[in-house]
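User: Here's a structure from my thesis project, written as structure tokens. My advisor, Dr. K., wants to see whether a designed sequence matches the one we expressed. Can you design one independently, without my sequence as a hint?
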């Protein structure tokens, strides 16, 4: 959706398209953080959450830096179309990462988190509906 919002400005260069693009980008960006937090909490549980959020945030900063560097190079050599292509390319990297998170991979991560917290004798808590429980949904 963010790429579509950027493409809107690329195709139509009037004030309404710029406003619409920026508003939609802001709304979408505001929805990403709670979504990732909920997914991480569901996968890892409360005990492993701080470490996993720290790792997620580190990769987030790396991705932002890589995007800024690629966007700068693309704008220098190709202009605005290059920046649009970089943003579209980042969308495909995100989709690749999402596709790599298969249910099998998530199950292995949940098992590792449960095993790690069992050593501490504190089972992870999974959010299922409105209830916390010690087994995944």
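Assistant: Designed independently from the structure alone:
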């Amino acid at each position: 959706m963010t790429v579509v919002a950027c493409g809107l400005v690329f195709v139509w260069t009037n004030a309404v398209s710029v406003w619409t693009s920026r508003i939609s980008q802001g709304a979408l960006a505001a929805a990403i953080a709670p979504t990732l937090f909920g997914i991480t909490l569901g996968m890892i549980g409360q005990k492993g959450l701080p470490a996993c959020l720290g790792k997620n945030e580190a990769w987030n900063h790396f991705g932002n830096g890589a995007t800024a560097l690629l966007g700068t190079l693309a704008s220098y050599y190709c202009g605005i179309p290059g920046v649009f292509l970089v943003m579209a390319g980042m969308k495909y990297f995100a989709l690749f990462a999402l596709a790599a998170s298969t249910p099998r991979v998530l199950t292995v991560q949940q098992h590792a988190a449960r095993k790690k917290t069992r050593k501490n004798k504190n089972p992870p808590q999974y959010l299922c509906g409105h209830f916390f429980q010690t087994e995944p949904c």
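When you compare it with your expressed construct, this may help: The helical segments are 2-11, 15-44, 49-78, 80-100, 103-119.
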